[in-house]
Specification:
By secondary structure, the chain is α+β, with helices and mostly antiparallel strands. The protein contains 33 helices and 25 strands. The chain has a 5-stranded mixed β-sheet, with helices on one face. The chain has a 5-stranded antiparallel β-sheet with strand order 24-23-22-21-25. GO terms for molecular function: DNA binding.
Length: 849
């Protein structure tokens, strides 16, 4: 049986029940419902009032597991107050259930701890607001599928009609409707007599009851109902709600259900099962490969935006067209492209530049990130992902107004996302290392733990709407996989695999370190309040990942087909230089680079000479430089800068006038608006950049020059936004209080409650409006001086400098200079009060001194 709330008299209110708790009990309540702490209640009466408000109760119900919620739903349809055996019978039914009997004490204790239920075992009470949310009504059907009681359903019925029903049901007519309703209720709750009454029903009438018994309990009937429905209505087994709507009374439904309030109570949490088993080393290697691929993808994405990324929409975020281009550049789906973009944004590597023509671009933090070792770069990605409230999976969906949700847009935050990510990974950690979880069992466990979370509702879920006819079947139940929490769990599994937190569906060793979980064996999920700081855990995870990542190499293998093969990840200086000199042709275990005239010209534009390129390739290739590649470099270098382009509007000059003649004769140059100014100079109507691109498209290798005639060197400098901070996660309600705050809050509430409940003697003068004691200045001074000498406490009225009035219980220790100093029981500290601000004083009752 659950623990009794108090050893003395039974509590009459929730405040009295809280007053009977110890400090640990109050701390447990405030820890479970942190919204009650903002601000700290003055006393236990205020705490109880706040705990019964609708918003606070809804938040508490949303955090209940399925069986605790089912227990609260059963209490909502039980008599108020309900003895513990009645509650147990509603959950186990006539047959009994050992699992429910074992789990129910814990569920009741949880509801008591969270102040949703109070009272001793013989008088369990659900707080009024929770009962209003969970009890059945025509506007808000109960999740149990039960309808109103006989007394509630017959409240508006004429006395004569009630008498007709009880007579038809075989009962004796009474003189008043109250006794008639009581007699009908007694009949429906008597198993033997109720069984005899139903034995008289036809199979068709029993079939109607079967369709309504598990809910919805409402159904419409025609003006001339069928004989089976008429038989049920005449005996009160169906009661009218309106002219055409009937309801199955709660007592009748409970009899037909065998006493169960719930169709399928779930006292035990679903077990997360393993789908396949791998060696832990295989899992860690697969996860490391995914982690390295994630780093390469992020680098490729941000490098493609080095000169500025897509424009920011007026409403915020990327356009659909830009997302498609990004997906094509990364060779992934649009949904995956949205994930990588959001990952960079959440890690602070990507932001908008804030300019008039606002665009997205890498931040200065990206350059710092590139300088880190690969394992640390990975940790800088996964730690923000774990705590981020932004949900990339929502991209492409619609908001409440039907507008499409854009990547990097302002409406992608979901406060439940960090909790779901943590919990999914912790559930994977309950399996032995190397075991890949069956995803469906993970989703089932998540739905059991928080059945109301993420459902997009302001309160408990509503069951399917009533059928349109009492003889029709019930509407199908909604898909359990469409709620937000289930979708977040599904996305978490996919994203964890992409990031290398899991390998082949099993949790990897670095991920266990990130969650502060044991590495050698599976363990129960860690308490969120006991976690080490995330940055420390991320450092441990990076340390474990580092030996698993491929080691960077400092060489390539040059091929005769103008390609270079990198046999592994290249060291940073070599990778940056080769990215300018060649284009990436394919990626994988070995990256293939291709040398083209355009890529060689790009290297020459950055200020390198042909001899520099030859020396670079010779130094970093394990194979000789192929002759075709050497010829390609020399050929492009020979032509590079032969033509010069500057600003006139734009001009082309060349020492060889025949080359300029060829350009003028080429039809492709018509769009450039060229004309000869001198044998070695052409003027153009196009701007220098367009002219440069146009001539390069024609196969020439022009070089830009400055106003002084010097060749302009185009280095691979990257555009960066001003310094930006990573987006701050949206909080999911008030933060969980730490032990220090809990201790101080409990102490303050206790002190305020002692002051508020202290019994006072009648003041010498009647209290003025507002309840403050009123005494003369001389009487006030004499009373506090006497209290200081005797060490007793007194009750005072006090008005502070802002004019706010309050009542306090103080124990004066010194009275001098127009001030009284004493221990304030209300504030639980020593304070000093000016005597002229004390409105009056009264002694406490003798038993309170």
């Amino acid at each position: 049986m659950p623990e009794v709330t108090g050893a003395g008299a039974a509590p009459r209110t929730l405040a009295e029940a809280l007053r009977a708790r110890g400090d640990e009990g109050l701390a447990a309540l405030l820890r479970a419902r942190p919204d009650l702490l903002s601000p700290v209640p003055n006393d236990l009466t205020q705490l109880a009032t706040r705990a019964g408000t609708r918003g606070s109760v809804v938040r508490a119900l949303e955090r209940l597991d399925r069986f605790a919620l089912q227990t609260a739903e059963a209490l909502a349809v039980a008599p108020d107050p309900a003895p513990y055996p009645v509650l147990l019978a509603l959950l186990t039914g006539d047959e009994g259930d050992p699992e429910i009997e074992a789990a129910l004490p814990g569920a009741v204790a949880l509801l008591r701890e969270q102040a949703l239920v109070w009272g001793e075992d013989d008088r369990l009470r659900l707080v009024r607001t929770a009962r209003e949310l969970l009890a059945p009504s025509a506007q808000h059907p109960s999740p149990t599928g039960l309808g109103p009681t006989v007394a509630e359903a017959t409240a508006g019925m004429s006395p004569g009609r009630v008498q007709e029903i009880i007579v038809t049901a075989g009962l004796t007519a009474t003189h008043d409707p109250v006794s008639a309703v009581a007699a009908l209720t007694e009949l429906f709750t008597d198993r033997t007599r109720m069984g005899a009454l139903l034995d008289e029903a036809s199979p068709e009438a029993l079939a109607v009851l079967d369709r309504l018994v598990w809910g919805p309990p409402y159904g419409e009937v025609t003006a001339n109902p069928a004989p089976p429905v008429q038989w049920l209505r005449d005996r009160g087994l169906l009661l009218p709600v309106s002219a055409r709507t009937m309801v199955l009374p709660r007592e009748v439904a409970l009899h037909l259900r065998g006493g169960r309030a719930q169709r399928a109570p779930e006292p035990v949490a679903p077990v997360v099962e393993a789908a396949r088993d791998y060696r832990p080393q295989v899992v860690d290697s697969a996860a490391a490969g995914q982690a390295y691929a994630a780093l390469a993808t992020v680098e490729e994405l941000l490098k493609s935006w080095d000169q500025g990324g897509p424009q920011v929409l007026r409403a915020g975020g990327m356009s659909v067209r830009d997302l498609k281009r990004t997906a094509a550049a990364l060779d992934v789906s649009e949904q995956l492209a949205a994930f990588w973009v959001e990952l960079c944004f959440g890690a602070g590597l990507l932001a908008s530049d804030g300019e008039a023509d606002e665009r997205y671009a890498p931040t200065p933090a990206y350059d710092d990130w590139l300088d880190l070792p690969p394992a640390e770069r990975w940790a800088r990605l996964v730690a923000p992902w774990l705590m981020s409230t932004r949900v990339a999976g929502l991209v492409g969906g619609a908001d409440a107004k039907g507008r499409t949700l854009a990547a990097l847009g302002p409406d992608l935050d979901r406060a439940a996302a960090p909790e779901v990510r943590h919990r999914v990974l912790e559930l994977l950690a309950t399996l032995p290392p190397g075991a890949a979880a069956d995803p469906e069992t993970v989703f089932a466990r998540m739905r059991w733990e928080r059945p109301l979370r993420g459902a997009g509702q302001a309160g408990p879920p509503r069951p399917p709407q009533p059928t349109t006819d009492a003889e029709e079947t019930a509407a199908p139940a909604p898909d359990p996989h469409t709620d937000l929490r289930s979708r977040l769990a599904r996305w978490t599994l996919a994203e964890a695999e992409l990031l290398g937190l899991t390998g082949r569906g099993a949790l990897a060793g670095p991920a266990r370190a990130l969650l502060n979980l044991p590495l050698a064996e599976a363990a129960a999920p860690a308490d969120h309040g006991g976690r080490v700081e995330l940055s420390v855990a991320a450092g441990r995870a990076a340390t474990l990942l580092a030996p698993l990542l491929p080691e960077a190499v400092d060489h390539v293998l040059l091929q005769a087909d103008l390609t270079a093969v990198a046999p592994g990840p290249l060291r940073r200086p070599l990778a940056d230089a080769l990215a300018v000199l060649a284009d990436v042709e394919s990626k994988g275990g070995a990256t293939v680079y291709r040398f083209t005239p355009g890529s060689v010209r790009r290297a020459l534009d950055s200020g390198r000479s042909a001899s520099d390129l030859h020396d670079f390739l010779t130094a970093h290739s394990r194979t000789p430089v192929p002759q075709p590649l050497a010829y390609l470099i020399d050929d492009v270098a020979r032509k590079h800068g032969h033509l010069r382009i500057g600003a006139a509007s734009a001009y082309v000059r060349c020492d060889d006038d025949t080359v300029l003649g060829e350009i003028l004769a080429d039809r492709r140059s018509a769009a450039l608006g060229l004309r000869r100014l001198a044998p070695t100079v052409l003027a153009a109507q196009a701007d220098p950049a367009s002219l440069l691109d146009g001539l390069r498209a024609m196969g020439y290798a022009p070089a830009a020059e400055s106003a002084e005639g010097d060749v302009l060197i185009t280095r691979a400098d990257a555009y960066r936004t001003p310094a930006r901070t990573a987006p701050v996660p949206v909080p999911d309600g008030p933060p969980a209080p730490d032990a220090t705050l809990l201790g101080a809050a409990v102490k303050a509430i206790r002190a305020g409650d002692r002051a508020a409940t202290a019994v006072r003697k009648e003041p010498a003068a009647p209290a003025a409006t507002g309840g403050l004691p009123r005494t003369s200045a001389a009487e006030t001074l004499a009373t506090v001086q006497a209290a200081a000498m005797t060490g007793s406490a007194v009750w005072i009225g006090y008005v502070n400098a802002e004019g706010a009035a309050s009542q306090r219980v103080i124990a004066p220790v010194r009275v001098e200079g127009g001030f009284v100093t004493g221990y304030d029981h209300t504030a639980d500290e020593v304070r000093t009060y000016p005597l002229h601000r004390i409105t009056g004083v009264a002694e406490l009752a003798d038993d309170q001194v």
